[in-house]
Amino acid sequence: MIKIIRFIIGLFATAKKYLAYVDQAIFVVNILKAAFNSQTAISLTALIPGDWDELARTKVAYALGKAAMVLGRISECEGKAGEERIACYLRWLKVQPDEVKTMNYARIALLIAKELADSLKLSEAELNAVIQTRYVQQKKG
């Protein structure tokens, strides 16, 4: 019985830590959405909050770079690397229809959360389910 209780407590502790990473990923995506709705230029430094620790900032920047490589396979961005490729991808995404943006937002959140929560070793399907649940909770919230 004690083993079961310890397992359940551990499960909730892991889930709580996992939700923090998901919330951080959604936070970055919400900043991205707000930037798209304004007329200001989007910069990588504006997307990552300055009060986050350096490791989290590095992981988010890496995940955005990965998103730009995976999702941003567009001719305008070929031959660009690093922040230049991320900026190119974000400029492209900004002018896309809402359904394309929504699909990309979900994928960006997944890549960011996966990078932040790498030590938890959760599957993409599990992570995606938590992200979708948190989005719904935040919209109701």
Shape: elongated
Number of domains: 1
| N-end to C-end Cα span | 36 Å
Please report the total strand number as a whole number: 0
Structural summary, described in words:
There is one protein chain. The protein is mainly alpha-helical and 141 residues long. It has one domain. Helices cover 75% and strands 0% of the residues. It has 6 helices and no strands. α1 crosses α6 and α3 crosses α5. The radius of gyration is 16 Å and the shape is elongated. The mean pLDDT is 79.
Chart the SSEs and their pairings.
Blueprint: H1 2-37, H2 44-47, H3 54-70, H4 82-94, H5 98-116, H6 124-140
Helix pairs in contact: 1-5, 1-6, 3-4, 3-5, 5-6
Provide a short characterization of the protein structure.
The protein has six helices and no strands. The protein is mostly helical and about 140 residues long.
Keyword list:
141 residues; mainly alpha; 6 helices; 0% strand
